[in-house]
Amino acid sequence: MNSYRIPEIAKQYTEYDMIQIHTDLPEFPEMRTRLLYAFLNEYSKLRASSELFTLAASLVQLGLDTHDMVTVTNDVKEKKAARSRQLKVLAGDYFSSRFYNLLAGAGQIEMIKQLSGAICEVNRVKMNVYTKMKQLKLTAEDYLHHMVEIKSQLFLSFSEILTEAHGHAWPQIMRSYARCEQLLEEIFRSESIANFKGSWGFWHILQHGAKDERKQLQQDQLDPAKVRTLLNKHQITSQLVELLRVQTEQFHAAVKLLASDKLISELFHISEPFQRITGKQPKVLEEI
User: What local confidence, expressed as pLDDT, does residue 275 receive?
Assistant: First the structure.
Protein backbone atom coordinates (compact mmCIF):
# COMPACT_ATOMS: atom_id res chain seq x y z
CA MET A 1 0.00 0.00 0.00
CA ASN A 2 1.50 3.29 -1.07
CA SER A 3 -0.92 5.86 0.35
CA TYR A 4 -0.34 7.07 3.89
CA ARG A 5 -3.45 6.39 5.97
CA ILE A 6 -2.13 5.46 9.40
CA PRO A 7 -4.13 8.07 11.38
CA GLU A 8 -7.36 6.86 9.76
CA ILE A 9 -6.60 3.21 10.54
CA ALA A 10 -5.67 4.09 14.13
CA LYS A 11 -9.11 5.61 14.73
CA GLN A 12 -10.62 2.14 15.12
CA TYR A 13 -8.51 1.82 18.28
CA THR A 14 -8.74 5.39 19.58
CA GLU A 15 -12.29 6.60 18.89
CA TYR A 16 -14.23 4.84 21.60
CA ASP A 17 -17.24 6.62 23.07
CA MET A 18 -16.13 5.97 26.64
CA ILE A 19 -12.76 7.64 26.01
CA GLN A 20 -14.13 10.56 23.99
CA ILE A 21 -16.85 11.35 26.51
CA HIS A 22 -14.90 11.06 29.73
CA THR A 23 -11.28 12.00 28.98
CA ASP A 24 -8.95 13.50 26.40
CA LEU A 25 -6.00 11.97 24.58
CA PRO A 26 -2.67 13.37 23.44
CA GLU A 27 -2.21 14.28 19.82
CA PHE A 28 -1.51 11.41 17.46
CA PRO A 29 2.27 11.24 16.74
CA GLU A 30 1.62 12.26 13.15
CA MET A 31 4.99 13.72 12.20
CA ARG A 32 7.30 10.92 13.32
CA THR A 33 4.81 8.33 12.11
CA ARG A 34 4.79 9.78 8.63
CA LEU A 35 8.59 9.92 8.58
CA LEU A 36 8.85 6.24 9.54
CA TYR A 37 6.28 5.22 6.95
CA ALA A 38 8.15 7.09 4.21
CA PHE A 39 11.36 5.17 4.99
CA LEU A 40 9.70 1.77 5.32
CA ASN A 41 7.58 2.18 2.23
CA GLU A 42 10.57 3.18 0.11
CA TYR A 43 12.27 -0.18 0.71
CA SER A 44 10.75 -2.92 -1.45
CA LYS A 45 11.46 -5.70 1.07
CA LEU A 46 9.58 -3.81 3.81
CA ARG A 47 6.79 -2.25 1.75
CA ALA A 48 4.31 -5.03 2.50
CA SER A 49 4.83 -4.51 6.25
CA SER A 50 5.24 -0.71 6.24
CA GLU A 51 1.65 -0.02 7.25
CA LEU A 52 1.61 -2.66 10.00
CA PHE A 53 4.94 -1.57 11.49
CA THR A 54 4.05 2.11 11.41
CA LEU A 55 0.63 1.54 12.96
CA ALA A 56 2.15 -0.57 15.73
CA ALA A 57 4.78 2.07 16.51
CA SER A 58 2.21 4.87 16.52
CA LEU A 59 -0.06 3.00 18.95
CA VAL A 60 2.83 2.31 21.33
CA GLN A 61 3.81 5.99 21.20
CA LEU A 62 0.21 7.03 21.79
CA GLY A 63 0.04 4.69 24.77
CA LEU A 64 3.18 6.17 26.32
CA ASP A 65 2.00 9.73 25.66
CA THR A 66 -1.40 8.94 27.21
CA HIS A 67 0.24 7.62 30.38
CA ASP A 68 2.31 10.82 30.54
CA MET A 69 -0.94 12.77 30.89
CA VAL A 70 -1.89 10.90 34.07
CA THR A 71 -1.39 13.08 37.13
CA VAL A 72 1.31 11.96 39.54
CA THR A 73 -1.06 11.97 42.52
CA ASN A 74 -4.68 10.93 42.81
CA ASP A 75 -5.67 13.71 45.20
CA VAL A 76 -8.61 14.88 43.10
CA LYS A 77 -11.69 13.08 44.39
CA GLU A 78 -14.25 14.75 42.11
CA LYS A 79 -15.94 11.94 40.19
CA LYS A 80 -15.43 13.35 36.67
CA ALA A 81 -11.71 14.03 37.20
CA ALA A 82 -11.15 10.64 38.83
CA ARG A 83 -12.85 8.85 35.94
CA SER A 84 -10.76 10.81 33.42
CA ARG A 85 -7.58 9.78 35.21
CA GLN A 86 -8.60 6.12 35.35
CA LEU A 87 -9.49 6.08 31.66
CA LYS A 88 -6.13 7.58 30.72
CA VAL A 89 -4.41 4.72 32.52
CA LEU A 90 -6.63 2.12 30.86
CA ALA A 91 -6.43 3.76 27.42
CA GLY A 92 -2.64 3.90 27.58
CA ASP A 93 -2.51 0.23 28.52
CA TYR A 94 -4.92 -0.62 25.72
CA PHE A 95 -2.96 1.22 23.01
CA SER A 96 0.26 -0.41 24.16
CA SER A 97 -1.32 -3.87 24.13
CA ARG A 98 -2.66 -3.44 20.61
CA PHE A 99 0.83 -3.23 19.13
CA TYR A 100 1.62 -6.64 20.61
CA ASN A 101 -1.61 -8.12 19.27
CA LEU A 102 -1.07 -6.71 15.77
CA LEU A 103 2.54 -7.83 15.47
CA ALA A 104 1.97 -11.23 17.09
CA GLY A 105 -0.89 -11.90 14.69
CA ALA A 106 1.46 -11.21 11.79
CA GLY A 107 4.22 -13.38 13.24
CA GLN A 108 6.53 -10.38 13.75
CA ILE A 109 8.04 -11.60 17.01
CA GLU A 110 11.40 -9.91 16.49
CA MET A 111 9.73 -6.52 16.03
CA ILE A 112 7.79 -7.08 19.27
CA LYS A 113 11.13 -7.63 20.98
CA GLN A 114 12.62 -4.48 19.45
CA LEU A 115 9.68 -2.25 20.40
CA SER A 116 9.48 -3.73 23.90
CA GLY A 117 13.14 -2.94 24.43
CA ALA A 118 12.55 0.60 23.22
CA ILE A 119 9.68 1.04 25.70
CA CYS A 120 12.04 0.08 28.52
CA GLU A 121 14.63 2.57 27.27
CA VAL A 122 12.04 5.36 27.01
CA ASN A 123 10.97 4.76 30.61
CA ARG A 124 14.60 4.69 31.76
CA VAL A 125 15.32 8.04 30.11
CA LYS A 126 12.11 9.52 31.53
CA MET A 127 13.01 8.47 35.07
CA ASN A 128 16.48 9.95 34.64
CA VAL A 129 15.27 13.27 33.32
CA TYR A 130 12.43 13.59 35.83
CA THR A 131 14.90 13.05 38.67
CA LYS A 132 17.15 15.79 37.29
CA MET A 133 14.16 18.09 36.87
CA LYS A 134 13.12 17.60 40.48
CA GLN A 135 16.66 18.41 41.60
CA LEU A 136 16.85 21.39 39.18
CA LYS A 137 20.00 19.89 37.64
CA LEU A 138 19.17 20.33 33.96
CA THR A 139 20.61 22.72 31.41
CA ALA A 140 18.44 23.77 28.47
CA GLU A 141 20.52 21.63 26.11
CA ASP A 142 20.35 18.61 28.45
CA TYR A 143 16.59 18.99 28.53
CA LEU A 144 16.36 19.18 24.75
CA HIS A 145 18.63 16.16 24.33
CA HIS A 146 16.54 14.04 26.72
CA MET A 147 13.26 15.06 25.08
CA VAL A 148 14.64 14.12 21.67
CA GLU A 149 15.74 10.71 22.94
CA ILE A 150 12.29 10.12 24.43
CA LYS A 151 10.63 11.05 21.14
CA SER A 152 13.04 8.96 19.06
CA GLN A 153 13.48 5.64 20.88
CA LEU A 154 10.44 3.75 19.60
CA PHE A 155 11.14 4.76 16.02
CA LEU A 156 14.83 3.93 16.32
CA SER A 157 13.71 0.33 16.88
CA PHE A 158 13.56 0.09 13.10
CA SER A 159 17.21 1.06 12.57
CA GLU A 160 18.41 -2.50 12.06
CA ILE A 161 15.87 -3.41 9.37
CA LEU A 162 16.36 -0.08 7.58
CA THR A 163 20.15 -0.33 7.46
CA GLU A 164 20.18 -2.54 4.35
CA ALA A 165 18.24 0.03 2.32
CA HIS A 166 19.43 3.32 3.78
CA GLY A 167 22.70 2.56 5.54
CA HIS A 168 22.96 4.41 8.82
CA ALA A 169 20.90 7.39 7.66
CA TRP A 170 17.75 6.54 9.64
CA PRO A 171 19.01 7.15 13.21
CA GLN A 172 20.55 10.50 12.27
CA ILE A 173 17.51 11.68 10.34
CA MET A 174 15.09 10.42 12.99
CA ARG A 175 16.88 12.25 15.80
CA SER A 176 17.28 15.38 13.68
CA TYR A 177 13.59 15.39 12.86
CA ALA A 178 12.61 14.72 16.49
CA ARG A 179 14.76 17.67 17.55
CA CYS A 180 12.94 19.88 15.03
CA GLU A 181 9.61 18.63 16.34
CA GLN A 182 10.60 19.29 19.96
CA LEU A 183 11.81 22.80 19.14
CA LEU A 184 8.52 23.50 17.40
CA GLU A 185 6.66 22.39 20.53
CA GLU A 186 8.91 24.60 22.66
CA ILE A 187 8.10 27.62 20.49
CA PHE A 188 4.39 27.10 21.16
CA ARG A 189 5.10 26.57 24.86
CA SER A 190 7.01 29.86 25.00
CA GLU A 191 3.78 31.61 24.00
CA SER A 192 1.78 30.06 26.85
CA ILE A 193 2.49 31.07 30.44
CA ALA A 194 0.58 28.02 31.69
CA ASN A 195 3.02 25.68 29.92
CA PHE A 196 6.20 27.56 30.79
CA LYS A 197 7.35 25.60 33.85
CA GLY A 198 9.66 22.77 32.81
CA SER A 199 9.99 24.05 29.23
CA TRP A 200 13.22 24.83 27.36
CA GLY A 201 12.72 28.50 28.23
CA PHE A 202 12.43 27.64 31.93
CA TRP A 203 15.72 25.72 31.94
CA HIS A 204 17.46 28.34 29.81
CA ILE A 205 16.58 31.16 32.21
CA LEU A 206 17.40 28.99 35.22
CA GLN A 207 20.83 28.43 33.65
CA HIS A 208 21.60 31.93 32.35
CA GLY A 209 19.35 34.23 34.37
CA ALA A 210 20.36 36.54 37.20
CA LYS A 211 20.17 35.31 40.79
CA ASP A 212 16.82 36.97 41.49
CA GLU A 213 15.39 35.54 38.24
CA ARG A 214 16.48 32.03 39.14
CA LYS A 215 14.91 32.48 42.55
CA GLN A 216 11.62 33.47 40.94
CA LEU A 217 11.55 30.26 38.90
CA GLN A 218 12.09 28.09 41.97
CA GLN A 219 8.85 29.26 43.59
CA ASP A 220 5.92 26.85 43.68
CA GLN A 221 3.59 29.39 42.11
CA LEU A 222 4.94 31.52 39.25
CA ASP A 223 3.72 35.06 38.69
CA PRO A 224 2.40 35.18 35.08
CA ALA A 225 3.41 38.82 34.61
CA LYS A 226 6.95 38.16 35.81
CA VAL A 227 7.22 35.07 33.61
CA ARG A 228 6.18 37.09 30.57
CA THR A 229 8.82 39.70 31.45
CA LEU A 230 11.49 37.02 31.70
CA LEU A 231 10.46 35.44 28.39
CA ASN A 232 10.71 38.81 26.65
CA LYS A 233 13.97 39.82 28.32
CA HIS A 234 15.72 36.56 27.41
CA GLN A 235 14.15 36.48 23.91
CA ILE A 236 13.13 32.87 24.38
CA THR A 237 10.88 32.60 21.34
CA SER A 238 13.37 34.18 18.94
CA GLN A 239 16.15 31.93 20.28
CA LEU A 240 13.99 28.86 19.71
CA VAL A 241 13.09 29.94 16.19
CA GLU A 242 16.79 30.33 15.40
CA LEU A 243 17.56 26.90 16.86
CA LEU A 244 14.78 25.44 14.74
CA ARG A 245 16.12 27.16 11.62
CA VAL A 246 19.60 25.69 12.17
CA GLN A 247 18.24 22.23 12.98
CA THR A 248 15.95 22.23 9.94
CA GLU A 249 18.93 23.03 7.74
CA GLN A 250 20.85 20.14 9.29
CA PHE A 251 17.88 17.85 8.69
CA HIS A 252 17.73 18.92 5.03
CA ALA A 253 21.48 18.38 4.64
CA ALA A 254 21.16 14.80 5.91
CA VAL A 255 18.15 14.13 3.69
CA LYS A 256 19.99 15.29 0.56
CA LEU A 257 22.48 12.44 1.02
CA LEU A 258 19.79 9.79 0.51
CA ALA A 259 19.86 7.83 -2.74
CA SER A 260 16.13 8.07 -3.51
CA ASP A 261 14.81 11.28 -5.10
CA LYS A 262 11.29 10.20 -4.20
CA LEU A 263 12.18 9.81 -0.53
CA ILE A 264 14.07 13.11 -0.51
CA SER A 265 11.02 14.89 -1.92
CA GLU A 266 8.71 13.26 0.65
CA LEU A 267 10.95 14.17 3.60
CA PHE A 268 11.26 17.78 2.49
CA HIS A 269 7.48 18.02 2.35
CA ILE A 270 7.18 16.42 5.79
CA SER A 271 9.42 19.18 7.17
CA GLU A 272 7.16 21.96 5.90
CA PRO A 273 5.77 22.81 9.40
CA PHE A 274 9.31 23.77 10.45
CA GLN A 275 9.87 25.82 7.31
CA ARG A 276 6.68 27.79 7.90
CA ILE A 277 7.91 28.84 11.34
CA THR A 278 11.43 29.76 10.26
CA GLY A 279 10.29 31.34 7.00
CA LYS A 280 13.05 29.62 5.06
CA GLN A 281 12.25 27.52 1.99
CA PRO A 282 15.08 25.15 0.98
CA LYS A 283 16.28 25.33 -2.62
CA VAL A 284 16.01 21.57 -3.07
CA LEU A 285 12.33 21.70 -2.22
CA GLU A 286 11.76 24.55 -4.68
CA GLU A 287 13.43 22.52 -7.42
CA ILE A 288 11.33 19.46 -6.65
Answer: 92
Res 280: pLDDT:
60
Contact between 257 and 169 (Cβ < 8 Å): yes
Q: Calculate mean pLDDT across residues 62-88.
A: 78
* 271 and 169 share one domain: yes
Taking residues 216-245, report their average pLDDT. Answer: 95
* Contact criterion met (CB below 8 Å) for 163 and 106: no
**In whole angstroms, what is the distance from residue 150 CA to residue 133 CA?**
15
19-46 tens-digit pLDDT: 777 778 889 999 999 999 999 999 999 9
Q: Domain count of the chain?
A: 2
Q: Are 60 and 151 in contact (CB under 8 A)?
A: no
- For 219, the domain range is 125-152+163-288
pLDDT in tens, 107-128: 999 999 999 999 999 999 999 9
Angstrom distance (rounded) from CA 55 to CA 103: 10
Same domain, 90 and 135: no
**Distance of alpha carbon 83 from alpha carbon 202, whole angstroms:** 32
The average pLDDT across 260-270 equals 95
The H or E element spanning position 149 is helix 140-156
Question: Measured between alpha carbons, how far is 168 from 150 in angstroms, rounded to an integer?
Answer: 20
